[in-house]
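User: Could you write out the 3D structure of this protein bound to (R)-mevalonate? I've included everything you need below.
Assistant: Certainly. Input first, then the structure.
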Amino acid sequence: MSKKIEGFSKLTKAEKIHWVAETHGENPSAFKATLETYNHSDPEVQKIHDEFIENTLTNHYLPLGVAPNFLIDGKWYTIPMAIEESSVVAAASKAAKFWSTKGGFQTEVLGTEKVGQIHLNYYGPAEKLNRFFNENTSRFLGELSSITESMERRGGGIQSIQLIDKTNALEGYYQIDLRFETADAMGANFINTCLETLAKSFTSAATSTFEADELPEVVMSILSNYVPNCVVRASVSVPIEQLGANLSDAQSYAKKFVRAVHIAREEPYRAVTHNKGIMNGVDAVIIATGNDFRAVEAGVHAYASKDGKYRSLSQAKIENDTLHFWLDIPLALGTVGGLTSLHPLVKRSLEILDKPSAKELMRIVAVAGLAQNFAAVNSLVTTGIQKGHMKMHLLNLLSALGASEEEKQILSKQFSEQTVTNSAVKEALNQLRNGR
Ligand code: MEV
């Protein structure tokens, strides 16, 4: 049973584990043993993970796999994926192989702009704030030069700064809107440091310009995870005649595939699941490469709703007897900074991708999303999703039932010919154990 504790963060790691095990563990020593098993045996390696967050008890593992044979813009990639869902890596690999015989994936980075905002309260005359802002903008930017210098050397920096009157939305609400390029960094720290420094310059200049009762007040300064101008397109296309031996079957398949995507464009309930399938691929690569999947998820779903209705991120059409399938997705990613130089497996994942630039990683991640989406929609309009999913899930079911390696081998063979369901697997294991 849980109870209140003061000063938990000040305890040593062993004390924290002891408290959690004694307070919450049904069997405290077994509880501790599990935590210990997942703690790295090399203290130097473990220290890296301990220091990522506060109150680390042990490590929470995800499998890291690879999906090979991705042909992207004429170059071969093996894509690292960190994910627990059984069928995702297999589906990505299958889609990669399929499209590699049809010219592979094409990509285009449509923009890399990031956004930061300083949110203000101001109840005086608008023209006075505008004048103050215009007269001081170059000074504000000048005061940022020590922060922006190195980013500018790498081709990034502040692209624009603007005061926006938002009083139609909220009384007294103004905003300083900044646009950034952040080169190979995701840029969150750079952007937030620029914003907070600028907010201080703004406040100190305002204090000597405005009367106390009209003084503009900084409410908060923060980057936005909505990045509708940091977007990459991944696409595939194939002449319909190459989709099967029989042209009329290939045409029906292509029509059904496009229809399924159109349904997801128009029907939000389907769109959410459709996009979840895309994110299976996207998140797996983002986690493997140490990027912030929460930021990407938040930005992606806002983008999916950008015209007032939640829609599928991917689109499809048939034109000139060719099936076209593509995905536009906002991705603010980094290949330097953050976890990229700290987490040993993130470093290895980037190595698997030949140390890509942030733009190249955007292309790869979008392709992983499109491949995953293709695999899911393809299954949905043909065999249904459960056949492949449950086949990949079989080993999980058997492990949960305590099957031995030998039993797993025998039953994997048996279920290659039989539909996998929870009850069928249970029954088959019982029969095997009872010698039937
Ligand atoms: C399951 O993780 C993802 C799918 O539901 C995606 C989809 O329905 O398109 C299969």
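The chain has a mean pLDDT of 96.
User: Perfect, thank you.
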